[in-house]
Amino acid sequence: MSKVYFSTWRGEQINNIGKADEEWEKSAYNLPLEYNEHASSKAFIGWDGVALFSPDVDVVRLATEYAAQYQVYSEACGRCAPGRWGGRILYDLLDKIARGEGALSDMEHLKEVSKTMQETSKCEIGKTVPNPLLDLMNHFESEFMACIEGQKPSKHYHMHDTNYIAKITAPCMDACPAHVDIPAYIEGVRDLRFDDSLMATRQTMPLAHTCGRVCPHPCETECRRTNLDEAISIMELKRLGADYETDHGFGFFHPAQKKPSIGKKVAVIGAGPAGLTGAYYLALEGVDVDVYEELPVLGGEVAVGVPEYRMPIDKYNQDIEAVRDLGVNFITNTKVTADMMRQFENDYDAVLVATGTRISKKVYCDNERPEIQGYWGAIDFLDKVNLQVKYDIMVPEADQKRHMLPANFVDLSGKTLACVGGGFTSMDVVRCAIRAGAKKVIMLYRRDEATIIKNTTYEEYHEAVEEGVEFIFHSAVAKMNDENDVLKSLTVDRFELVPDPNGGRPTLEKIDGASFDIDVDYLIPAVSQSADLKLLPEEWEIERTSWATIKTNGKDYMTSRKGIFAAGDCEYGPMTIVNAVGQAKRAASVMARYVQSGEITLSDDEIMEDHLRKLKVYDKKEKIKGWLPGLPRAHSEVLTVDERKDNNREVKYGFTQEEALAEAERCMRCYYIAMVAH
Ligand SMILES: Cc1cc2nc3c(=O)[nH]c(=O)nc-3n(C[C@H](O)[C@H](O)[C@H](O)COP(=O)(O)OP(=O)(O)OC[C@H]3O[C@@H](n4cnc5c(N)ncnc54)[C@H](O)[C@@H]3O)c2cc1C
Ligand code: SF4
Ligand code: SF4
Prior knowledge:
Bound molecules: flavin-adenine dinucleotide, iron/sulfur cluster
Oligomer: single chain
Shape: globular
């Protein structure tokens, strides 16, 4: 929160005109006062108001520039007359006034056109563009009148001392870590232009099949339609474009033509979502990319962690092939070492480290000794399951013995397995264990049902319950009990939530005398993962975070060593696919400029993206006008429990075309324009 000269943002009324700086009020919002480290902002203008950070802003020119941005958009859109013609009139009249040629009637005309646009435009962008313009005309009428009455240009009209940087956004786009142009891909579905839909997705998200299936869809939590009835089924609509391309056997619909080679080379370490994304956008920019992968297969945790029944490998492979289609070179079965990194620094123009977090953390109980048979880290357990199910790569003999398997695949017939966790990984462990024939599968979780749903999804939890997983909430393993290094049982403590008498967060406290033992054959710790960073040469002294991942500034993704970048889980810690994609997309964009100029820069679009995310585009309190509530959200069919629990068929069918069209129709196209003057 900072002091501002004037603000109508989100309904606040701050007017410090005529007051000394030290008396200025603070805005309640994270307005972009500093554009970047080199420039302070003068003003911010957007769909929900306007804020001035200095008295010296040419408000007439500011209004004109904002209208100009909309005019460019509306010419291209052309979906409705009020938006298209209104946009042209707004710009023409404002520019006329700013030039010093305006008439008194122009002000009235501007207000009338604004009102018509607010009431009759089809999309939010047309409805909202007049909002800040009216604020400026109402609060700074004298500045407009000075231009009209004096027939003189606005105060900075002939000066080129201000940059006007605009960006189109939407609440859902802002919430998606990859900033996918959601309204555009939904519109592609609605118009039955599935190729356009896919290209809109791939502008910032190359893994369309994947994020149409297993993304935790933070975009839906910030979908404006929630304020009216229910969020749009954003994630699943992404499948339409991807399936269309795959099912029809078309070539790949890339969002742009790959640029000719610029003669620069980048090494990417790790072929998970971050590595694949980095490679994709670097290749589009004409950079030659080699991707090194330790495993025999490509895809990272989505390939060897996320099970087949959630993310079929033939679909994921399509996403991977789209990357290969741009000429990316993949080198598998190659674990990059510190020596190789030293060499890469000479051989390549830059390196992107995208090695994920593939070490399962311990549960920290008594007698937690990895040599006890039956103790099996979640990542290794899922590796074995997925390599076998998806790629027919069987369990090696030594591991078969180590994990007491009767055959060279994960067969848990007659066994009891307990998993400790509460996130995606643990849910995959228990559901895979059911499919591997386990007699009994137990999930031990410290917190409650609501939290496990929040950490995963409602569907995921309920599907696991239906399949027979037993959840024991408010519980934690206190001790592993073994006989001759073979796991026999677990001692489990019980906890209860004790309210804070001071009204703070309730705390979990152990219930004395409530501990119990359960007989188990396996304990799978799936509490979290850490990063293996041994590939970073020690003498480089690359900075780490306090949670032992690679440190960057979270904006340009360069590490403390020049030319070495990091993205995805190895940078952030275990997170989500879309988070890895968003980071790697940004890193690729910075790297593509870096390999040519040696400079680390963000584009204006990226700077605006970061400002808007801080400001937050979605307004939970907004009352939606002009749309009728009550159109129910579409739900695609899922396999019944009996159809799915002993096999790896994909659980969700996805939308039929009719369902998809009905769902796409519900989208309100909530595009907005934001602009900073600096
Ligand atoms: C079981 C499980 C289920 C999940 N489910 C979901 C889900 O449903 N939705 C969701 O959004 N997220 C999910 N996640 C999280 C998601 O998979 C990760 O956030 C994402 O894969 C991170 O991508 P990444 O590219 O950073 O790392 P990773 O996917 O881990 O890829 C890193 C790659 O680097 C390779 N590598 C590591 N070190 C080296 C080296 N020295 N040399 C060469 N190669 C190396 C690894 O072998 C790996 O292939 C899940 C994670 C797990 C474990
Ligand atoms: S209604 Fe459509 S455009 Fe609006 S926030 Fe939801 S998905 Fe995005
Ligand atoms: S990638 Fe995930 S967050 Fe982004 S639009 Fe798709 S479902 Fe939403």
